[in-house]
UniProtKB/TrEMBL annotation:
Protein name: Glycerol-3-phosphate acyltransferase
The reaction(s) this protein catalyses: sn-glycerol 3-phosphate + an acyl-CoA = a 1-acyl-sn-glycero-3-phosphate + CoA
Motif HXXXXD motif, residue numbers: 307-312
Top-rank lineage group of the source organism: Bacteria
A GO term, aspect molecular function: glycerol-3-phosphate O-acyltransferase activity
Name of the encoding gene: plsB
Native source organism of the sequence: Candidatus Erwinia haradaeae
Annotated compartments: Cell membrane
Domain notes from UniProt: The HXXXXD motif is essential for acyltransferase activity and may constitute the binding site for the phosphate moiety of the glycerol-3-phosphate.
Any Gene Ontology biological process: fatty acid metabolic process
């Protein structure tokens, strides 16, 4: 028996060494390393398993932790370095705790009573091999456990899932702190064991999730819904068809929509993604992942709301969540992606498909709403793109509130379910679709997604640089509603199909907050910094030395006056960032005897502007300050604040800026002080004035505000000339004038050609009170309106202002 055990252990060690590659999930590994040196940490594992124990031993040796199989000494007494929560692997009956653990905890408590300096820490460790969906190792109705009952099963376990294993370390639990709070209590060990068990259950739910409903089970569940039954009856009545035919139509819609998770597909896709992303991207930078783990442990239903840059977004987010040790979400995808074989693969990875428009189809909208509600009722994580589609300009698109409304309705029906939204910023140094975006804005027809278009696009999959995924500040729907709409709980009705009157306005307000938090989590990279500097220069070219100075100016602004705590700024120096940007082969370098000239290639100007627009919101206020200063040479701070505050409400809404009007004065103070520190201007009492030495840096900084100011000037000039013009006429005329400016002055601004952005801007100007709408849909101007135009027309170049005014009166 002894020989058999030794052989068994040796065999497991060899197999684990060959086949197991574990990823660590921990927020405090450094703390564990420091405490482990003092030999006062005891690891608690969920259940008795040699496989788990040897895996932990290998990892501890790898990172420098002491061997968990070696005993430790606490207050001169020998203790095991590890202990199992329980010995039993059958959870059909009540939990059977490991008596050794109870005795150990009670003895350690007694030692803390005797020695006031003693401070033993406990760390809970979960080791998960593979994550087959719906496998809950604490299900009382099944014997599902990661301890295998035969040597063959152990071999299979390591062989198939060894490279898909995770080691989860909890935060350290201080026995001294607990003792100080609760004092000695014989019931303490039982409470701690209960808490540990709950932790392991939650850990399993975080990593593996609840059992995913199969398509057939979900179909049956939805057809039994009272809301669906009512919709079927109404469909039969309104279209004068039989009840059976209406039910067939409903079944077809459910099948069209539904996801069909497959662990095999996820496992294989992960292997492919791991290889391909390593080839395509130099690095995938992730920030804020710990926030999601903290929320998941609280058993909140999580909604991921990313911005939408590329088709890579779907795969990248799922890949990151999977490698963060989190359950994969159900993903709302456009029906345009439901083509063979991509549609089937995406369904296996959790995608459910939604049409772009419901076209008044009440049955379809009901089925979609009930499907989403069913997901939330079970606590499944859900992901959808709040912009509705991919951004063609690089700016955030106006949010779509359709699925957000469904999320709120689901919350009203599931009062006990806490839903938390995670805003996600996604940034790239190279977006493979960006050239097609600029072509579409120029009037080209959008290419329909299909297998052949994907195969053609594969040739562009090279040298994509770095990608960035920043998880922003979580947004709790419950806290928002409790604060803004205290009576919201009275609206709860499990089968109510009409939503309360406040719901639509709440959805729009929540969407605005989410967009702001996405922008707050923006990531700066080498490409967008270089484009920002070059796009404001003459001929779109700068000497290398000057370009480095300009990039350094941007970096210092963001480091010393941070846009937000969630934004990320590279730690590299400006020279290194430029070298990296040039390695992307997006820019041209012309050799010169004095200094190299870095240029934006003419055929790439529009496409490269996309990357500048990703971070434009972070520099718009410094750019506006620079513009006012250059125009006036010397300006009173009160006048500076007045001009910026007049324009700011439009910028705030269009670019989803997070500062309130009350915060604007303090922000301007901080930015002016930083610009003075950099030598760009000087302060004299209440005035600020130019410094000629670094005028060229200020000029390039100011260029970042010109496109926005010119767009605003066009719209206000049209309204000055014709106060009764309709919104559609403003949009059409603005578009024509913007095109003419592009031809005359070589303006390559993407948003000039995006009618969606123009329409949103016009709506913003009206909504912010710059113009008023009468009952017959005509507009009237007021004194406020004239003041804003006076400021704008002064800040744009005189020749452009004259051209705009001439085109405005041109019939």
């Amino acid at each position: 028996m002894l020989i058999g055990g030794i052989i068994d252990n040796c065999l497991l060690k060899i197999l684990i060494k060959i086949f197991v590659q574990s990823r660590i999930i921990s927020a405090n590994l450094k703390s564990i390393l420091n405490f482990d040196k003092k030999n006062n940490i005891i690891y608690i594992l969920p259940n008795k398993s040699k496989l788990d124990l040897i895996t932990l031993q290998n990892y501890c040796r790898k990172v420098g932790l002491s061997d968990p199989l070696s005993p430790i000494k606490i207050a001169g007494n020998p203790f095991p370095h590890y202990v199992f929560l329980q010995d039993s692997v059958n959870f059909r009956s009540a939990m059977m705790y490991n008596l050794k653990l109870v005795e150990l905890l009670e003895f350690i408590l007694e030692l803390h009573q005797r020695d006031s300096k003693l401070n033993v820490h406990i760390v809970l460790v979960s080791i998960i091999f593979g994550r087959p969906l719906g496998k809950n190792r604490y299900d009382k109705n099944k014997i599902i456990n990661y301890k295998w009952f035969s040597k063959i099963n152990k071999l299979l376990k390591v062989f198939f899932f060894g490279r898909d294993s995770f080691i989860y370390f909890s935060s350290m639990i201080s026995i001294r702190d607990i003792h100080a709070q609760y004092r000695f209590n014989k019931k303490f060990s039982a409470k701690l064991i209960r808490a540990a068990r709950i932790h392991f259950i939650r850990q399993c739910l975080v990593a593996i999730g609840l059992q995913m409903s199969t398509s057939s089970n979900l179909l049956v569940t939805l057809l039994q819904s009272q809301v669906i039954k009512k919709a079927i009856a109404e469909e039969a009545s309104s279209k004068r068809i039989s009840h059976q035919q209406a039910q067939k139509n409903t079944i077809a819609l459910i099948k069209e929509i539904s996801a069909n998770f497959s662990y095999v597909a996820i496992y294989l896709t992960d292997r492919i993604m791991r290889w391909s992303l390593g080839k395509l991207y130099q690095d995938i930078n992730v920030r804020g992942g710990r926030r999601i783990l903290d929320i998941a442990y609280k058993e909140h239903a999580i909604v991921y709301l990313p911005c939408h840059r590329s088709h890579m977004d779907y795969l990248l987010i799922s890949y990151i969540l999977y490698h963060q040790g989190l359950t994969l979400p159900y993903i709302a995808a456009g029906i345009n992606l439901n083509f063979w074989p991509i549609g089937k693969i995406f369904r296996y990875l959790g995608a459910f498909f939604i049409r772009r428009t419901f076209n008044g189809n009440k049955l379809y909208s009901t089925v979609v709403r009930e499907y989403v509600s069913e997901l939330f009722s079970h606590g499944y994580p859900v992901e959808y793109f709040i912009e509705g589609g991919r951004s063609r300009t690089g700016y955030l698109r106006p949010p779509k509130t359709g699925i957000l409304l469904m999320t709120l309705q689901a919350m009203l029906r599931e009062n006990q379910r806490v839903i938390t939204i995670i805003p996600i910023y996604i940034g790239y140094e190279h977006v493979i679709e960006v050239e097609s975006y600029s072509n579409e804005l120029a009037g080209a027809i959008k290419e329909k997604e299909g297998l052949f278009s994907i195969l053609r696009g594969l040739k562009n999959l090279r040298n994509l640089g770095q990608s960035y995924v920043n998880f922003g500040e979580p947004f709790s729907l419950t806290k928002y509603l409790d604060k803004r709409i205290p009576e919201w709980r009275k609206s709860i009705d499990p089968i109510k199909t009409k939503h309360p009157v406040w719901l639509t306005s709440a959805a729009h307000d929540i969407a605005k907050h989410i967009m702001i938090r996405i922008n707050n989590a923006a990531a700066i990279n080498a490409t967008n910094l270089c484009v920002m500097a070059l796009i404001g220069s003459d001929q779109y070219a700068l000497p290398r030395k000057q370009l480095i100075q300009q990039i350094d100016c941007y970096l210092q602004l963001l480091r010393n006056v941070p846009y937000s705590p969630d934004a990320t700024v590279p730690n590299m120096a400006a020279e290194k960032l430029l070298e990296h940007a040039l390695s992307m082969n997006q820019f041209e370098v012309n050799q010169n005897s004095i200094d190299d000239i870095v240029t934006l290639p003419k055929n790439k100007i529009k496409s490269l502007l996309y990357y500048r627009n990703n971070i434009h919101h972070m520099f718009i206020i410094p750019a506006l300050i620079s513009t006012v200063l250059i125009k006036n040479r010397k300006v009173d701070f009160i006048e500076l604040h007045y001009q910026v505050s007049m324009i700011y409400p439009i910028l705030e809404h269009e670019l989803f800026l997070h500062w309130s009007q009350d915060e604007l004065s303090g922000l301007l103070d901080s930015l002016v002080s930083e610009m003075e520190r950099q030598g760009l201007l000087k302060k004299e009492k209440n005035y600020i004035s130019l410094k000629e030495d670094f005028f060229y840096i200020l000029q390039l900084l100011a260029a970042g505000a010109q496109e926005a100011l010119q767009r605003y000037t066009i719209i206000f000039a049209i309204l000055i000339a014709n106060p009764t013009i309709t919104r559609k006429m403003i949009s059409d005329k603005s578009y024509i004038i913007a095109q003419r400016l592009s031809v005359l002055y070589g303006t390559h601004v993407l948003e000039f050609f995006d009618k969606t952005m123009l329409n949103t801007l016009i709506f913003t100007i009206r909504n912010k009170g710059y113009m008023q709408e009468s009952k017959d849909l005509q507009y009237a101007q007021d004194i406020y309106f004239k003041n804003i135009y006076k400021i704008l027309s002064n800040l744009v170049p005189q020749d452009i202002r004259i051209t705009i005014e001439r085109f405005v009166v041109d019939r």
